[in-house]
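Incident log, structure service

09:12 report received: a user says their structure output differs between two submissions of the same chain.
09:20 pulled the input from the user's history:
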Amino acid sequence: MQDLLLEIEQFCLRNGMSETRFGELALNDKPFVSQLKHGRDLRGSTAARLRQFMAEYGAHQPADAATAREYPAGSLAFPHRDLLGISQLERHEILYLLDQAEPWVELNRQSTKHTDLLSGLTIINAFFENSTRTLLSFEIAGKRLGADVVNMHAATSSVKKGETLIDTAITLNAMRADAIVIRHASSGATQLIASKVDCPVLNAGDGQHEHPTQALLDALALRHALRARGQAADDFTGLTVTICGDILHSRVARSNVLCLQALGATVRLCAPPALMPVGIEQVGAQPFHDFDASLDGADVVMMLRLQTERMSGQFIPSAREYHHLYGLTQKRLKQAAPDALVMHPGPMNRGVEIDSDVADMLDRSIITRQVEMGVAIRMACLEVLTRRARGVAGWEGAA
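09:34 re-ran on a clean worker, output below:
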């Protein structure tokens, strides 16, 4: 029954239809969906009738890229138990998560932003690093899906009392969570925890390794921004994206390079020599030390903050000097494409890597759109990764 409820919910979101209206049109029974959620019996013939209605209704509606694209059936569309990095994903798996997020974008723009799909499931947000934006985004995502969400902060955890990461993982596993979201200062920590627990693990950032949901939300925000301009944005083939900032310490940069390139974009990386990883050319990105040169004709400019908390030593002379050479100003932005979009994963250091008048450009900056898409993409990831636990048809044997 859960798989049918999911189909109905996504159908209603795609078509801007309330559940009451769905019941009226499909069965002439307005409270049907609400009653079904509360245990109403469902005959096989009724389920078949509902699916026939959705199929025939969709056949007479214009298909968008998300609904028209075909994926492997069931768990073959996304065969992973965990989401630990973009590096583990194929192109079609990235597109699948982006498409799965579209209904949640619509839900989050409605007055009632809630569903009971994950009702009865427990999600633990275990953050061993300080976070405001990412933690809040995951918490809202879980609660809007109807899950019980528990936040664990390292400052108040047994880690401060000497407990090892493995012991923490074993403890979390014993609590029988249905999904665990991990942020940790050490690269590979999420992989270690995933190997010790029985439920899906989502990487919310591990050291300098990866931050997969940030790259996914950036891709979703860029897709929506391009569509708003009337540009077909199934992928980013032909786009040139310049990422400038502290590339050396940035897990966001790593995940974005992998994601953007998988979707067809050309990626340029710009940083002072001390903040550019050695051998970055091997991942296919084009390295620059001259910010002005890296901006030439760029369609998208993504700025990154200086991650001073990860720096040991003097990597730049001063914030003022850094802004002079690598800060995004309106004058400097003119070297990019005339309608180049501006992105920043946050938090921003205004006046250092980006000027306020650039960050707040209504027609060019999509920074707040990135925040909005963060909730939707995390809802999609949580919903997809918990399908096995919820017994969704076709996902019982998921990895």
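09:41 both user submissions now match this output. Likely a transient worker issue. Closing.
09:42 reviewer note: The radius of gyration is 22 Å. Residues 62-67 have pLDDT under 50 and may be disordered.
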